[in-house]
Design a protein that fits this description.
193 residues, mainly alpha, 3% strand
Length: 193
Amino acid sequence: MTKFEFLMMIASVVIAIGMTEIVAGWGRMARTPAKVSFDWLHFCWTLYVLLWSIQYWIGMWAYVGFPFEYPIEVYFLVIPTLFFVFAAFAITPDVSQSGELAVREYYLARRRVVFLPLAAFTMFAQLADLVIVGSKAAEDPWLILILPLVALTALPAFTTRIWIHALVLGLLSVLLVLFFFVEISVFDQRWQG
């Protein structure tokens, strides 16, 4: 087993925990006898977080050729995933067996503990490129987008205006969908020169 395979195993397990929490949350809401008031915005954000985690996992393939010689490189491979898992647990409501769950109210009440970790995930994922890859990552043209992307991701944490939450979701979803059409070979060659 190579160092990369070992480290990907750790990161994959952490990501899988977050993904499991989101999908299990959908299942808990679907099967509870309690009255659940479905919310399209909450569902769309949970779907986005789920798809984003898959995309991040695919993107880690770009590190396949790197030696991972220093502990800080290992930390920066795992740290972003921890922020993702925290956000996944925060966005997924606990469902009781009786009573009522107002999903929109839950979503808006937890917005800071969802979106600030997602913004931190975005920032630390980019910092991981700088720490693991080094100066070559600093030449990446996408780097200029990182601060606006972090700010955009954090924006819903500071407002209850639904149209802002929907607009941010729409903008971030467009970027995510664009990545769906990037060939995996591009990830292979991203840092190879």
